[in-house]
Amino acid sequence: MTILAIDQGTTSTRAIVFDESLRPLTTAQCEFKQHFPRSGWVEHDAREIWATVEQTVTKAAADHRIQAIGITNQRETVVLWDRKTGEPLHNAIVWQDRRTARFCEELHAGGHEARITEATGLLIDPYFSATKLKWLLDEVPDARARAERGELAFGTIDSFLIWKLTGGAHVTDATNACRTMLYNIGTQGWDAEICALLDIPMTLLPEVLDNAAEFGTTGILGYDVPILGVAGDQQAATIGQACFRPGMLKSTYGTGCFALLNTGAERCASSHRLLTTIAYRLDGEVTYALEGSIFVAGAVVQWLRDSLGIIQDAAETQALAEQADPNQEIVLVPAFTGLGAPWWQPDTRGAMFGLTRGTGPAEFARAALESVGYQTRDLLQAMRADWSGSADVLRVDGGMARSDWAMQFLADILGAQVDRPQVTETTALGAAWLAGMKAGLCGGMEDFAQSWDLERRFDPRMEEAERDRRYALWTRAVKATVGV
Q1: Long-range contacts, 281-286 (Cβ 8 Å, 24+)
Q2: What is the full per-residue pLDDT of the chain (484 aa) written as tens digits?
Q3: Overall fold of domain 242-421+453-484
Q4: Taking CA atoms, which of 44, 180, 188, 227 is between 20 and 30 Å from 211?
């Protein structure tokens, strides 16, 4: 009895087969090309993404009989495709893309943010899908006219993959829909007023389902398999970390870093520029969360490797950081694609402070890892200020969570315990549980929560005065970078 999780991420696609006890059996992974046509623009070829799904699914499931499929995906990334052929009209515009920053400024100036935030829980920012979709409709030849004739379909990556897998099911789930800046998280429906404001035909939009639901059936493996679970990657990780109680908090360190605090049935409005979002929707019941988004986390390690050539492999970063000169206090603000929460500065670019003639690869590596810890503290301080409840120990996952050095620094700079589970790739695990639970192969929420297993707890070692002094250096560096 096996479950297949498709984990479509920002830089690669993975397919993982789990047994009914949610133990991983086989994995296949395939990277794909990143396209940067202009400064601040980031695109993917959606056809290449689909090809990586076909490759990894076929390879991972070759020796298994799959009973159910779960999908998790990079959120906010936009695809616009032809309903007849399934072919994209343009490269997918990635969540990191900043090309609509000027239009977002116009929406701000027009006084629209209060209405959009009240409806969607989001801030006006190029990060979200809505302005990306508007750009495609405005800039791709004949796209708007074709959309108005009902010839085109819009979707986030999950929706595009489901269309391709099923041969035409146009659906999404509540956690992906709520990241578009078009979905009303109070009424649980597409917001006609916002769609009209952005001149987006509502016929483009997919049907929105619960996270565990019947999304369609695929024959990609040569036999029919139902797709029964879908969640955006950060919500899937929240589920995979079993953060089912209000106050439970997780932070995922992938390309970016995303912290979600479960606030239960309470929709908590932020006064510190965090996002109010849907953690999950099961059996029609919505659980909300506060979310803080960091655009560059694991991507800063990729920068060390691909742009600077300091490392050949991400695993080398920890050893370098350990060798760094403790007397050099280098601060890196990795605003390569702007700053996310709580700053929300799309036009800011990266900066480094404290350089000396002795600064070398080790100091760069340490500053890169520390930048992720500092940004996480920004998020958690804002969450604690916004929410009246008490937050539990932070649960971490994602590729960077495997670094003991980075997680110890995180505990130190937060002054709080950090828990790392046995399974750090919890995004795929969350998608697998949703599908397995819907199929009746896995237990319910309580059983799944009890199966969560701690691998290591990191306790803070840094003195409070030193923690505050170092965080003040970070805050000063960010303000200098932003120009405030």
Answers
A1: 281/173, 281/174, 281/175, 281/188, 281/210, 281/211, 282/210, 282/211, 282/212, 282/445, 283/210, 284/210, 286/174, 286/185, 286/188
A2: 899 999 999 889 999 999 988 999 999 999 999 999 998 899 999 999 999 999 999 999 999 999 999 999 999 999 999 999 999 999 999 988 989 999 999 999 999 999 999 999 999 989 899 999 999 999 999 999 999 999 999 999 999 999 999 999 999 999 999 999 999 999 999 999 999 999 999 999 999 999 999 999 999 999 999 999 999 999 999 999 999 999 889 998 877 888 999 999 988 888 888 899 999 999 999 999 999 888 888 788 888 888 888 888 878 888 888 898 999 999 999 888 788 777 778 778 889 999 999 999 899 999 999 999 999 998 888 888 888 766 667 899 888 888 899 999 999 999 989 999 987 778 999 999 999 999 999 999 999 999 888 999 999 999 999 999 999 999 999 999 987 5
A3: Nucleotidyltransferase; domain 5 (3.30.420)
A4: 44
Residue type present at position 434: L
Instruction: Give the span between the Cα atoms of 443 and 407, in whole angstroms.
Output: 31
Considering the chain, tell me which residue range(s) the CATH 3.30.420.40 domain(s) occupy: 2-233, 242-421+453-484
Contact at 8 Å (CB) between 473 and 352? no
Write the CA distances from 168 to 215, 224, 227, 267, integer angstroms. 11, 15, 13, 34
CA 70 to CA 57: how far, in whole Å?
A: 12
Spatial CA neighbour of 128 closest among 38, 152, 119: 119
Query: Which CATH number is 2-233 given?
Result: 3.30.420.40
Residues 361 and 356: their CA atoms lie apart, in Å, by 12
Structure tokens at 109: 């100036």
What phi, psi does 238 have (nearest 5°)? -60, -45
DSSP secondary structure code for residue 460 in this structure: P
